[in-house]
Structure formats: structure tokens, C-alpha cells
Design brief:
The complex is a heterodimer of chains A (about 150) and B (about 190). In chain A, about 80% of the residues lie in helices and about 0% in strands. With about 150 residues, chain A is mostly helical. In chain A, helix 1 crosses helix 2 and helix 2 crosses helix 3. With about 190 residues, chain B is an all-alpha fold. Chain B has 10 helices and 1 strand. The radius of gyration of chain B is 18 Å and the shape is elongated. Classes of the chains: A mainly alpha (about 150), B mainly alpha (about 190).
Chain lengths: ~150, ~190
């Protein structure tokens, strides 16, 4: 199919849509009538599309009960409240777990009776956690700014 | 349905300075529009409620990034549509949930016209179910444009502005969606 044919098809489709939705100018209306008169397949498609419009015009989205609207803002407010609660819980948990881990590792490190392998393992855990933290923070703060796909809605 | 941009601006400024009541007023002003936009996309009342409320909650958390000179709803809609699109993507793996979704469309005008004839009422109910299923299975971008045009009654220019796409793309998506609906109506009683 030639590109001019594709463009003509696209034009006819746009004219049909605009006609269905009352967005057709007088000159476009004449053009659509001419196209429909000269193309029986297009005229058949036009009838189908008009039927769809007739059907959808009588339909609407069903209305939920009044209680939904009355409690709507409270639903949003509860989400905000719980969001703040989760942030506080998360911060508290991070502080407590960090303190607990630090104390544990410090005791482990000071205990001269422990084999060197266990102490090296503790050091590796700390180093690993620091590297992970730095990596995640870098991804969030630096890479995201330059991600060309960050606004793509998948 | 659409709020006054001037008073929206004032409410946004007040919300940005921490006034929850001002944000509550914005929620009350746009809750219906956001809810029905979500309903058209996800086709389920519970999910539409959940997603539209979550969009408002996220909007509140991000309120300081909103320029008060810009209209509130298009900004909120970007948050909402992203939530809905992500939800639809995740739900592909949960086809059973889609099948279990209750009816979300009403055919009051059609049923009123068919009143008194059980046979015609049955036909209308079947027609509604066909249209509902056909819309639910449309690609999200086509469904979005169809719902805005058919059920929200937006003009092409408004849809194009809201989605940041050319009017020609609006018409092409609308055409594709209506062709799918036409196929669903083939052989209708």
C-alpha cells in the first residue's frame, strides 16, 4: 500500500470520528460525503461506527452509592495519616536495627577469643552493607536524573 | 465537573503551606472526575476507588512540586493514569480478577426505552455486557481516549491537552477503539 493511500485512509477515519463527535466543519462534511459516496466499503464501515456511537451514547458509567462520596476525603486522609505512620515506624526500625547491629558487630570485633575468620566475616558484612547503601543511594539520586525512560508509562 | 482555575490556584497555594482543609476541598472538587476516569480504565468500582484515593494521597505528598499557575486536574490525572496503567499491567497476570469484576456501566437510557418489554430489556442487558467486555479488553491508551470522549464528554482538544498528544492521535486511538466495539456488536440481536 502506498503512503498516499495510507494517508487517505487516515484522513477518512479522522473525518468519520469528527463527524460522530460533532467536531466536523462544513467543508470537512462535504469531503466526508464525497468519500462515502465513492467507496461502498467505507460507507459500510461508517454505518458500523454510527451504530457503535448510537449504543454508547445511551450508556454511562454506573454511579456508586452516596456513602462513597461522603467518605471519600476521609479515605484519602487515612492514607496520608498511615503514610506518616509508616515513615515513623520505618525510621524507628532503621535506627534500632542499626544500633543493634553496630553493638553486635562491635562486641564481635572486640572478642579476642573469636577466630579471625569470623571477625573477617563481620567486617565483610559491614563493608557489603555500606557498598549496597551507596549503590542504592547513587541510583536514586544520580542515575534517575539521567534516565531517558523515567517518564515512560509502561 | 471542572473546577474554577482561579480558586483552584488559591487552594493549591493553601495546601502547599500545609492547609489540609484546602486540599480536602480540592479532593471534594475533583473526586468524581478522578474516580470515573479510573473506573473507565480499570473497570471495577473497588479498584477505581482505591486508585483514585491513592492518586490524591500521592498528589498531597508531592504538592510542593506543583506550580500553582498550572491547572490542578491535569497534574493529578498524570499521577492517576500512571497508577492505573501500572495496575492494568500488573493485573494482566490476574485475569481471574478481571473476569470477576462486576458491571461498571449503566444503560439507563436504553433500559428506559425498553421498559415494559422483557425481551428488549434482556437484549439491552446483553448489549451493555458486550460493550463493557469490549471496552475492558481494549489497549489502555485506546480505552483512555474512548472513556474521555464517550463518558466524560471531553472535546478532542481537551483530551489532547490532558494527554499531551496531537489531536490526530486522539482520533486515531478513538477510531481503533470504536472499530473494536463495532466488532463486538457484530451479530447483535
Amino acid at each position: 500500500m502506498r503512503s498516499s493511500d495510507v494517508q487517505a485512509d487516515e484522513r477518512a477515519r479522522h473525518l468519520m470520528m469528527a463527524a460522530l463527535d460533532g467536531e466536523l466543519s462544513a467543508s470537512d462534511h462535504t469531503e466526508l460525503e464525497r468519500l462515502l459516496d465513492g467507496d461502498p466499503a467505507l460507507a459500510a464501515e461508517w454505518r458500523q461506527l454510527k451504530r457503535v456511537r448510537e449504543v454508547t451514547k445511551t450508556m454511562s458509567m454506573s454511579e456508586p452509592s452516596q456513602e462513597i462520596w461522603e467518605g471519600y476525603w476521609m479515605g484519602v486522609y487515612r492514607r496520608l495519616e498511615r503514610g506518616i505512620a509508616w515513615i515513623l515506624v520505618s525510621i524507628g526500625a532503621i535506627v534500632l536495627l542499626s544500633w543493634w547491629a553496630w553493638e553486635g558487630l562491635e562486641n564481635l570485633w572486640r572478642d579476642q577469643n573469636l577466630p579471625i575468620l569470623v571477625r573477617a566475616g563481620a567486617l565483610a558484612v559491614i563493608a557489603g552493607l555500606v557498598i549496597l547503601l551507596v549503590s542504592v543511594v547513587r541510583e536514586k539520586l544520580v542515575l534517575r536524573k539521567t534516565d531517558p525512560y523515567k517518564d515512560v508509562v509502561r | 465537573m471542572v473546577g474554577d482555575p482561579g480558586s483552584d490556584r488559591l487552594l493549591v497555594v493553601q495546601a502547599q503551606s500545609g492547609d489540609n482543609r484546602a486540599f480536602g476541598e480540592l479532593v471534594t472538587r475533583y473526586m468524581r472526575r478522578a474516580y470515573f476516569a479510573a473506573l473507565g480504565l480499570v473497570g471495577n468500582h473497588d479498584d477505581a476507588l482505591d486508585l483514585s484515593q491513592e492518586a490524591f494521597a500521592r498528589a498531597f505528598r508531592a504538592r510542593r512540586s506543583l506550580d500553582p499557575e498550572r491547572p490542578f486536574y491535569p497534574w493529578l490525572y498524570q499521577i492517576l493514569r500512571r497508577l492505573c496503567f501500572n495496575f492494568l499491567r500488573d493485573r494482566k497476570a490476574q485475569a481471574a480478577k478481571l473476569a470477576a469484576a462486576g458491571p461498571w456501566m449503566a444503560d439507563d437510557a436504553g433500559e428506559h426505552a425498553a421498559a415494559g418489554s422483557p425481551q428488549r430489556l434482556l437484549e439491552r442487558a446483553e448489549l451493555r455486557a458486550r460493550i463493557e467486555t469490549a471496552i475492558a479488553t481494549l489497549p489502555a491508551h485506546e480505552k483512555e481516549v474512548l472513556v474521555m470522549r464517550e463518558f466524560e464528554g471531553l472535546r478532542y482538544r481537551e483530551i489532547a491537552d490532558l494527554l499531551g498528544i496531537p489531536i490526530g492521535t486522539v482520533m486515531s486511538r478513538l477510531y481503533a477503539a470504536r472499530k473494536a466495539l463495532a466488532a463486538a456488536l457484530e451479530g447483535e440481536p
